[in-house]
UniProtKB/TrEMBL annotation:
Protein name (Swiss-Prot/TrEMBL): Deblocking aminopeptidase
Cofactors that this protein relies on: a divalent metal cation
Residues given in the record as Zn(2+) 2 binding sites: 188, 223
Species name: Intestinimonas butyriciproducens
UniProt: Zn(2+) 1 binding residues: 71, 188, 242
Record-linked PANTHER family: AMINOPEPTIDASE, AMINOPEPTIDASE YHFE-RELATED
Keyword Membrane in annotation: no
UniProtKB keywords: Aminopeptidase, Hydrolase, Metal-binding, Protease
Length: 346
């Protein structure tokens, strides 16, 4: 397979997925985008009852069922209250780092289909007005959304159709640089979803298939802890493709595929992890093996739901997770190549 040849498709796919607002529970647009891409490549798809997407790929042999998964839900915000001044107080969906959101542009989606724009701000937003502009906490009690409409009270906000429970989606600021970096919020985990769609394109173009029957699960509740519960428990193996962590006490870089030996939920399957390490060495891939201290994946939830599948986790190294994230084409290419080697589809 020509892994270098999929770069343009990969980055365009990533930009398409990242442009579709999809915090947990509000993922229909990202799922539809992934569905269109997979269908355009000629693969059969189906939706789960919870709104996820399954892509089915027949293998050359039918003695095992292999699953790959990535999640297309992201972090986000929801309106929890409307103030007397017409501001929207927020509650987090997943774990966004709230101080990084101070000043971010956003969209407010109403239940009747209207979309408004706004800005997430500290409640002390002006240096010429507030003594505590630098010291006020950036948290749910001290940040709000300023709506880009002429509103001065809660009644005028509600007249726009905006209510408590409406989703607030902040701008991912997606950029692909000439030097090969993908910069964006929500690379966790739309970067990995793009890698799996690029792998499907490579298989189609090469006229090949995985060794065993394979299904890709794009889950939609990973960021709030139950995405993997929808993955069938009778798979023989499950490979989660999620971001690799970059930071203190970790060896992974943005240019590598990370192989996770253990996260906060415990160790991954020893034999499967060892096989992935051996494949990375055999193929000359740039990789790292790490232990993630503040991390869990869809595998953890699948196991807790009763799955007997062997399971492991790989993904491109991502810097500044849950903030302004960044990865590199090299890390994504190494991830695609390791997944292809694992599936024995070359």
């Amino acid at each position: 397979m020509d892994f270098n040849g999929c770069k343009d498709f990969l980055m365009e796919t990533a930009k398409t997925l990242l442009a579709a607002d999809s915090p947990s529970g509000f993922t229909q647009n990202a799922v539809a985008a992934a569905e269109r891409i997979a269908g355009g490549l000629g693969y059969a798809t189906r939706r789960t009852n919870k709104g996820g997407l399954v892509i089915e790929v027949p293998g050359r042999e039918h003695t095992k069922r292999i699953g790959l998964c990535a999640h297309v839900d992201t972090l986000g915000l929801m309106c929890r209250a409307i103030t007397d001044k017409g501001e929207l107080m927020i509650t987090r969906i997943g774990g966004p780092i709230l101080p990084t959101l101070d000043g971010e542009y956003c969209k407010i989606y109403t239940r009747d289909g209207r979309i408004y724009t706004g800005t997430v701000l500290s409640l002390s937003p002006a240096a010429h007005v507030f003594d505590d502009v630098l010291t006020r906490p950036r948290d749910e009690q001290n940040m709000a959304v300023r709506i880009d409409e002429k509103v001065q009270n809660a009644e005028e906000v509600r007249a726009l159709g905006i209510e408590v429970g409406d989703y607030i989606c902040f701008d991912p600021k997606t950029t692909v640089t000439q030097s090969g970096f993908l910069k964006s919020r929500f690379i966790d985990d739309k970067g990995s979803a793009a890698c799996l769609l690029a792998l499907l394109k490579l298989m189609r173009d090469a006229g090949t298939a995985p060794r065993y029957d394979m299904e890709i699960h794009f889950t939609v509740y990973e960021e709030v802890g139950h995405g993997g519960a929808a993955i069938p428990g009778d798979l023989d193996e499950l490979l989660a493709v999620d971001m690799g962590c970059v930071g203190s006490d970790l060896t992974c870089t943005e240019y590598q595929v990370s192989i996770c030996a253990k996260d906060s939920s415990g160790p991954y399957d020893y034999d499967m992890v060892s096989r992935l390490v051996a494949l990375a060495k055999e193929r000359g891939l740039d990789y790292a093996v790490d232990v993630y201290p503040h991390y869990s994946s869809d595998v953890s939830v699948t196991w807790r739901a009763g799955s007997d599948a062997k399971a492991a986790l790989i993904g491109p190294g991502v810097h500044a997770s849950h903030g302004m994230e960044r990865t590199h084409w090299d890390g994504m290419r190494n991830t695609i190549a390791l997944a292809a080697a694992y599936l024995e589809c070359e």
